[in-house]
Design a protein that fits this description.
Layout: E1 25-34, E2 45-54, H1 62-67
Antiparallel strand pairs: 1-2
The chain binds zinc ion (ZN).
């Protein structure tokens, strides 16, 4: 076991990139429409949900869609996390 300090030096951690090399992410909003029958107010409601999208492909990256359940498949990016090679953090080989 590695007994490393919880103090992490972020200057040595890699930035998250998508497959295309993109490192810039944007927040976007999705809305669910709550029908009047299900709405507590008895009126139609729009329920906002914030998602992160890749600036390059415009889709929701895997690291976000894995954590946030219910992202529509057509919005999911095919981007995968690429860690910098010197860190050896690439999970699936
Ligand atoms: Zn992408």
């Amino acid at each position: 076991m590695n007994d490393q300090s919880l103090k992490v030096d972020l200057s040595s951690t890699p930035w998250i990139k998508c497959q295309g090399g993109n490192m810039i992410w944007e927040t976007s909003m999705l809305f669910k429409r709550l029908s009047p029958l299900m709405s507590p107010s008895g009126k139609e409601e729009l329920i906002p949900a914030e998602v992160i999208v890749c600036k390059k492909c415009g889709k929701v990256p895997k690291f976000f869609s894995d954590a946030a359940k219910g992202i529509p498949d057509e919005l999911k990016s095919t981007c995968h996390l690429l860690a910098s090679p010197d860190k050896g953090l690439i999970m699936d080989k």
